Amino acid sequence: MTGPTAALSTRERLIFAAIQLFWEKGYANTSMSDLLTAAKANSGSFYHFFPSKEDLLLAVLDTYFTMLYPQMLAPAWEGIDDPIERIFALLARYRMLVLQTECTYGCPIGRLALEISPEQEEVHRLLAKNFDGWTAAVRGCLEQAADRFPPDTDHERLSEFVLVVMEGGVMLSRSHRSVKPFDQAVAELRAYFNRLQESAKTIRKGKGD
Amino acid sequence: MTGPTAALSTRERLIFAAIQLFWEKGYANTSMSDLLTAAKANSGSFYHFFPSKEDLLLAVLDTYFTMLYPQMLAPAWEGIDDPIERIFALLARYRMLVLQTECTYGCPIGRLALEISPEQEEVHRLLAKNFDGWTAAVRGCLEQAADRFPPDTDHERLSEFVLVVMEGGVMLSRSHRSVKPFDQAVAELRAYFNRLQESAKTIRKGKGD
DNA sequence: GTCTATATACGGATAGAC
DNA sequence: GTCTATCCGTATATAGAC
Q1: Inter-chain contact A175–B104, Cβ cutoff 8 Å?
Q2: Does the CB of A43 sit below 7 A from strand D?
């Protein structure tokens, strides 16, 4: 990438077309001709840059990892300083995606995690890396707010739990074509967070006596 | 189906081959020839029973719904009477599936929920019906144990939360090729359940005074 | 680095005899 | 209800000129 204002190179157009199409249609259901049409490229150019369709997938997953902060976290956290509210702001951003797609949204990473064959190990390594990037961001928030949770809170485990709730919520909303399952999942998570914080308060008060 | 001992009809062989293949490879990645080979049937027979591959998918989802109790719930609950333990026994059964597949397991329903295009509305209706059957079973457990939860507990919401945790946990375990994410998600859910029950105890004690 | 044309295999679905 | 043969479109990937 050569900067935000520069025109996209062929390679970049292929990657961004793939991001869009793999997200909408999945990997197997996206054909080379879909891809070439969307990227306004031709077969010769494609195979000049990528040995195969699978290598394009790897480039897509690298790009997702790179985009996580600027495209997902930074916009979600703009104007929000409280670390716990940042976690729910991130979830609110997924809610927006669900609504924008008329509740057909599927997380592109989650979708690929279930679609791609386990034999494509390199792909799954990059999928896991993307998940880990996401949970690391949430873990960072939890650690900033560590004093508001019980002292034995497992931040890694709880951050993964947040991801699990997001992925599961998105999945159910897609099959039900309603944002309600997602909202309920997030509400239940919020209820859990509130209980954890209440419990932390009680413990602190006990110590303070 | 004509009973447990009868040989399978061609139609049944096609459905059970599809259950296996859609689970392992997904819907789009399962070809007619995969299907016909596995079911030991031929193309003419297939199109005698099903107008198209999509109709086979609908039959598969009907079968999943029918099998939920006998194949999933009944075995999970055998010898377990406590309703809360039944919920975690169900999750333990998914853990077994994760282990049996060397952590490549993907829930067949969840996988299809993310793969199948939203335009195939009939398919998504049946996917949602399968999810609803699952959460209804969990909700039944929660209702049986209602007196052990806070009085304002939303059983529907909490039962959906259990499904969300299962689906998300399975997804992360597949990409990480490790049962750890699943175990951590279930452990966090257990911690939440324990807090809910503790809180219910306190409330009851308060009332009893 | 881009283009057109094409190789070769496989996809879902069908025809029509038995 | 089962069988073989096959239609026709599309899949990924390649060849070779520019």
Answers
A1: no
A2: yes
A201 touches chain B (CB under 8 A): no
CB distance B42 to B25 below 8 Å: no
Least confident of A194-203, B1-10, B138-147, B159-168: B1-10
* pLDDT tens profile A92-111: 999 999 999 999 999 999 99
Residue A31 and residue A29: Cα distance in Å, rounded? 6
pTM exceeding 0.85: yes
Asked if residues B94 and B107 have their Cβ atoms less than 8 Å apart, the reply is yes
Cβ of residue B123 closer than 8 Å to a chain A Cβ: no
Is strand D less than 7 A from the beta carbon of B41? yes
Given its phi and psi angles, is residue A17 left (phi above 0), alpha (psi -120 to 50 degrees) or beta?
Answer: alpha
Low-confidence residues in chain A, pLDDT < 50: none
Chain B residues within an 8 Å CB radius of A181? 160, 164
CA of B26, C1' of C17: distance in angstroms: 35
**Residue B1 vs residues B29, B46, B54, B123, B133: alpha-carbon distances, Å:** 27, 17, 21, 22, 21
